[in-house]
Amino acid sequence: MQRVCFTLQVKPDRIDAYRESHKAVWPEMRAALSRHGWTNYSIFLRDDGLLIGYLETPDFKKAVAGMQGEEVNARWQKSMVDYFVALPGGRADTSIVPLEEVFRLD
Q1: pTM to 2 decimal places
Q2: Among residues 8, 40, 65, 100, which one has the fewest Cβ atoms lying within 10 Å of its Cβ?
Q3: What's the pLDDT tens digit per position in 52-93?
Q4: Quick check: is 50 in a domain?
Q5: Which residue, among 106, 101, 6, 96, has the nearest Cα to 53 in the 3D structure?
Q6: CATH code, domain carrying 73
Q7: Considering Cα of 58, then 64, then 65, then 67, what sign does the dihedral take?
């Protein structure tokens, strides 16, 4: 199982709206994430907009690729793009760069 942690930056003036948008993630989006192996997926947000995401999956590249084929993901990403500062991949899901895990307490 791969453990994946990543960061993104939410625009300071959009933090409250971003938090609000995640109070009711669409059921079909949640189902698609589960279907493509996104387990234990959590998003944390600091008051300055630093977003930290964490998930576990058998194959992260496959999990991301699977979501690319989901129509609901395209709609979700379109609704999210304005929340973020500089997305090099154009969308949050294609801008994820996993952080290197340097320690794990087993």
Answers
A1: 0.93
A2: 100
A3: 999 999 999 999 999 999 999 999 999 999 999 989 889 999
A4: yes
A5: 6
A6: 3.30.70.100
A7: positive
